[in-house]
Amino acid sequence: MFAVRLNSKIFLVLSVGFIAGVLGLAGTAQAELKVDVTRGTVKPLPIAVTKFIGNGPQEIQLGRRISHVIRADLARSGLFDPIDEKAFIEVERSLETVPRFQNWRILNAQAMVQGRVAVLSDGRMKVQFRLWDVFAQQQMVGQVYTTVTSNWRRIAHIVSDAIYKRVTGEEGYFDTRIVYIAETGSQIRRIKRLAIMDQDGENHHFLTDGSSLVLTPRFSPSRQEITYMSYHGNVPRVYIFNIDTGRQEVLGDFPGMTFAPRFSPDGDSVIMSMAESGNTEIYTMDLRTRKVRQLTRHSAIDTSPYFSPGGKRVVFNSDRSGTQQLYIMNANGSGVKRISFGKGRYATPVWSPRGDLIAFTKFTGGRFYIGVMGVNGKGERLLTEGFLVEAPTWAPNGRVLMFFRESPRGTGGEKDSKLFSIDLTGQNEREIVTPMDASDPAWSPLIP
Amino acid sequence: MRIKSLSYLVAALFLATACAETMQDGGAGRGSGGNQQAASSVKPGTGRDFVINVGDRVFFEFDKSSLSSDARSQLEKQAAWLKKFGSVSLTLEGHADERGTREYNLALGERRANSAKDFLVALGIAPNRIRVISYGKERPAALGQNEAAWRQNRRAVTIVAGASGS
Amino acid sequence: MSVTLHGAVVLVSVFGLPHIQRDLRIEDVPMVVELVTISNETNLPSQPVHDPKHKSEPEIQPKPKKNASKPVPPPTPANEVVPPVPLPDPEAAGNPPPQPALKVKSKLKTEPKPVLKPKVKPKAPKRFAKAKPTRKPKPPDEFAAVLKNLAKEFTKPHPTQSSEKNKKAEPARHSFEQQIAKVLTRPRVSDAASNRITMTERHAMINTIRTAIQPCWNIQPGAKGAQDIVVVVRATLSPDGRIRRAWVTNRSAFQNDPFKLAAAETAQRAVLNQACQPFKLDPRKYDVWKDVTLSFNPNEMFGR
């Protein structure tokens, strides 16, 4: 198919030329060459990230750390290929002169980042950076930030986001955090704790102490809050955790187990499942009025609900057809429509922040898959697979997913559980290193 | 920071070890109605009596919550015991194997526990004696990535007051 | 024994938790960020870009912190100002001459693509010329070559499905090209005059440039709408087959759309990337290839 279409373009060019030829116009005087380029490569962009310059040991150290974090961010995205510093021909000494582009071109760097750190008299620091297009020899973006020095890591992520946005045209996702479940101990009696970290695995903290089983956390899009499920007091319920205060609060007063919570896009309500008497339905709770609304009414298991970015629709999984499949309904519960029809079971749908795709977990043929499909269920694409891969969560720009992967360890039945990110092409899968086993990741929105 | 994480890891490992021992101490009844130990050594009406002389669990097919004939006869034995010791209250735990997504398995475990509960109630056990809880795939009874282990994990476990955990 | 161990754990947990809390507070040190955009005109010494006081734009004031344990939000990207980009060195990038034609457009998804009519009648040149692009619905299950899809692996039972398609297309293309070549090399078609080139030669030149540039075009798969953008770059070549100047036509049209701008720049970088040059073109025909228009469209790569 592709080849035929490629030829069609050649053909068009040829036919135009052919008419010209027939009319006796062919020759050097004819219209200039027109080249249709329809294929490229998907290689990451070679970029040189230089050490941010500074005076004195503190500035120099901060500069080195910041550029190191930027380099790691860009490399992890899979869209950039930071060039090894050792290959650099010279270090740019100043931010006020145009770089010697030929030195970067030789390394085949297509973009170059330079910056400077200055610690101010009040103890804060000023970080500047410039991103250069090496071939076009022009600045693409340049910014200055002032903050306390302890925020150097965050500044580095913000710079990475600026670079990512300028080069790709899309929002970055480096200045974000991950909330997940840290796991220890035997599978028989796993200890699970709520934990939070930067998207690159740094700044790791536990939020709960492991005395209660906790599962499936999600960030609020608007507040410093996490909703999750806890077995506190051996009563499994949905809770809200306030990151600022550390306060945990059970959500609502339900007769049965509540689970699978997610915030609405405006952060004002939580959608979740409640199981009672062997039946699981989907409910929303308004966080201000505490009003509860039942959305599904079916004897099947209806769970893992997720709002569309505009909050008007909900995707969820249900076994009403006999096995788990994905369904979409209006936010008031009307208009339920099945969207997945492929072989196997579909679960944990999550709506892309862009609105165009739904990512899911699929189980078929004894293997688990992470995949995406259009909102209409068309165009299913499976990105990765394994003994168990589960629970995709979107980066705020809708280009990267994170999920967890369990793999058997040895023959004793124990398993490793790790977090991974994968981009939408399925080509760039990377482990997010955590201090211990990990599951149920949820990506924060861009830090407000 | 790293060091702190490590200390938690160590703590968690301790806890895990401790709990594993608890398991071996208490979770004797693996099969349905395992009565290898001498019945005489167990005090009637206790959780231990229930686990050893009656059998505390029933098993389910993959992604199913319907009761097999084996499961039904097991629950009949449980009901008889429960009638005999009418003051004992019980918790029905629903579990799933690891071959499913977490949230769905929580719902499935709840369904299985209720399936067992409904049967016990039909046999005359008062519903207010029974509490139901689902652990989904969070608390397997058997380790192993094979059908034999998974079968043991797709279960509903009846815990009577005084009995050890599943 | 078991009890002792539990006890130990409790101790660790109780002492550990406050540490966690303390850590959290440390992490959440209030963040005060001021942001100004560095001027692009770095080659103007009169405007020391590192000094925010010289900025024409007002500095963004640090937001008052509401809560000691909560980071103060950094400035949003909306504060960023990207002025028109100057070209400090015309040697490589060049200034665009007045160029009315612009091809940057977002194709509507609903618009089917022109597809070649499969039948080529060698002996009917006029009909050949009339071979207008026909419209043909896209195959629904065709996926981007660059987009991984594990599903293909287990849809193998259907040998006629998409995975087979590419393999089959290859030989078909050759025979098709041969057919075209046959038509085009007929004496009637190619002019005998020495200063003119045959369609075959022209075809070969286009192919040479295309083949050379494709490895240098870093497209971004997975970007929303990436497949709908067409970027047209005009270029002037030196007699040695290298690009002397290249510019995206009517670049200003997407200056305000960061995504289109980024897409346009990938095309510009592809043309300016010397790693893919010089093009192996016949120097005697320099007049023919000294000016080239390149149209970049990843549509077919995405297959939809």
Class by SSE composition of chain C: alpha+beta
What series of H and E elements makes up the topology of chain C?
HEEEHEHHHEEHHEH
Q: What's the β-strand tally of chain C?
A: 7
**Biggest sheet architecture of chain A:** 5 strands, mixed
How much of the residues of chain C is beta strand, in percent?
A: 5-15%
State the end-to-end distance of chain A. 46 Å
CATH architecture verdict of the largest domain in chain C: 2-Layer Sandwich
Question: How many domains would you count in the coordinates of chain A?
Answer: 3
Unreliable segments of 5+ consecutive residues of chain C = 1-32, 40-144, 155-177, 179-195
Most extensive interface between two protein chains, with residue counts: A-C, 115 and 140 residues
State the secondary-structure class of chain A: mainly beta
Unreliable sequence segments of chain A: 1-29
Rounded mean pLDDT of chain C is: 55
Helix content of chain A: 10-25%
Description:
The complex is a heterotrimer of chains A (448), B (166) and C (304). Chain A has 448 residues and is mainly β. Chain A folds into three domains: 1-40, no CATH class; 45-168, 3-Layer(aba) Sandwich (Rossmann fold); 177-443, TolB, C-terminal domain (Neuraminidase). Chain A has helices at residues 2-22, 56-77, 101-106, 152-168, and strands at 33-37, 45-49, 80-82, 111-119, 124-133, 138-148, 177-184, 191-198, 205-206, 214-219, 225-230, 237-242, 248-250, 257-263, 269-276, 279-286, 292-294, 302-307, 313-318, 325-330, 337-338, 345-351, 357-364, 367-374, 381-386, 388-394, 400-409, 414-423, 429-432, 437-443. In chain A, helix 2 crosses helix 4. The longest helix of chain A is centred in the first third of the chain and has 22 residues, at 56-77. With 166 residues, chain B is of the alpha+beta class. Chain B has a four-stranded mixed beta sheet. Chain B is globular, with a radius of gyration of 17 Å. The N and C termini of chain B lie far apart (36 Å). The relative contact order of chain B is 0.18. The model of chain C is unreliable at 1-32, 40-144, 155-177 and 179-195 (pLDDT under 50). Chain C is an alpha+beta fold and 304 residues long. In chain C, the strands form two sheets. In chain C, strands 2, 5, 6 and 7 form a four-stranded antiparallel beta sheet that branches. Chain C has a two-stranded antiparallel ribbon with strand order 3-4. The longest helix of chain C has 26 residues, at 2-27. Chain C is 32% helix and 10% strand. Chain C has helices at 2-27, 125-130, 151-154, 162-184, 199-213, 258-272, 286-289, 299-302; strands at 34-37, 105-106, 114-115, 134-135, 229-237, 243-248, 291-296. The interface between A and C is large, with 115 and 140 residues.
